[in-house]
């Protein structure tokens, strides 16, 4: 902590991060131990966060992330989309295919930004807001590959016909962006993805990750 920071706010944010990392919630005692503060401090933090709907407590007294966090989260997508657009435009124009940024939304992959090339005669119509299971399509599979090997260079993922007949996809996960789990990719009307596309998608994913850091 420095003179410019608030200890109470810091503790409140740490509570939210701890609760976000568990599916079953935490008790006051567990939070007290993890934060290294007494139970009275934890009670006050939880009461304040609960007042703003950022946490909720179940009948057993375990604290969990509240629905108020969702309202804050809705504002994240526009910021992420804006930061990613330059790299996506460059990717779409370079490859001549529809480029997209996809983020994890629960158990699904959600396209939050899409850029179509301006010079091609035809390309895949892919819209922001499109959802699909994480285990189908290059975008979701790239995210899962990063989960399985978080410390390794995940490279890129190629798929064909998993989301749309006749379409192939290439995607690379975002790496090193705290609080954001996603991928950058392209989708094209081809039976296979040209060799140069995979490395180019990895480069675009790195550019987006740098813009979000």
UniProtKB/TrEMBL annotation:
<dbReference type="Pfam" id="PF01614">
    <property type="entry name" value="IclR_C"/>
</dbReference>
<dbReference type="InterPro" id="IPR011991">
    <property type="entry name" value="ArsR-like_HTH"/>
</dbReference>
<keyword id="KW-0238">DNA-binding</keyword>
<feature type="domain" description="IclR-ED">
    <location>
        <begin position="68"/>
        <end position="213"/>
    </location>
</feature>
<dbReference type="InterPro" id="IPR014757">
    <property type="entry name" value="Tscrpt_reg_IclR_C"/>
</dbReference>
<dbReference type="InterPro" id="IPR036390">
    <property type="entry name" value="WH_DNA-bd_sf"/>
</dbReference>
<protein>
    <submittedName>
        <fullName>Helix-turn-helix domain-containing protein</fullName>
    </submittedName>
</protein>
<feature type="domain" description="HTH iclR-type">
    <location>
        <begin position="6"/>
        <end position="67"/>
    </location>
</feature>
<dbReference type="InterPro" id="IPR005471">
    <property type="entry name" value="Tscrpt_reg_IclR_N"/>
</dbReference>
<keyword id="KW-0804">Transcription</keyword>
<dbReference type="InterPro" id="IPR036388">
    <property type="entry name" value="WH-like_DNA-bd_sf"/>
</dbReference>
<dbReference type="InterPro" id="IPR029016">
    <property type="entry name" value="GAF-like_dom_sf"/>
</dbReference>
<keyword id="KW-0805">Transcription regulation</keyword>
<dbReference type="Pfam" id="PF09339">
    <property type="entry name" value="HTH_IclR"/>
</dbReference>
<dbReference type="InterPro" id="IPR050707">
    <property type="entry name" value="HTH_MetabolicPath_Reg"/>
</dbReference>
């Amino acid at each position: 902590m420095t003179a410019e920071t608030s200890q109470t706010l810091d503790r409140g944010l740490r509570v939210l991060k701890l609760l976000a990392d568990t599916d079953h919630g935490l008790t006051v005692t567990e939070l007290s131990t993890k934060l290294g503060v007494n139970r009275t401090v934890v009670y006050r933090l939880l009461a304040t966060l609960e007042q703003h709907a950022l946490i909720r407590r179940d009948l057993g007294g375990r604290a969990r992330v509240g629905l108020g966090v969702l309202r804050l989260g809705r504002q994240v997508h526009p910021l992420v989309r804006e930061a990613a657009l330059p790299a996506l435009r460059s990717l779409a124009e370079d490859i001549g295919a529809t480029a997209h940024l996809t983020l994890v939304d629960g158990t699904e992959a959600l396209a939050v930004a899409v850029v179509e090339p301006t010079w091609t005669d035809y390309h895949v119509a892919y819209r922001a807001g499109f959802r699909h299971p994480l285990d189908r399509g290059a975008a979701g599979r790239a995210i899962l590959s990063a989960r399985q090997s978080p410390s390794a260079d995940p490279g890129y993922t190629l798929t064909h016909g998993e989301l749309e007949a006749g379409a192939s996809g290439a995607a690379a996960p975002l790496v090193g962006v705290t609080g954001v789990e996603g991928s950058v990719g392209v989708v094209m009307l081809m039976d296979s993805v040209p060799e140069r596309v995979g490395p180019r998608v990895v480069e675009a994913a790195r550019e987006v990750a740098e813009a979000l850091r």
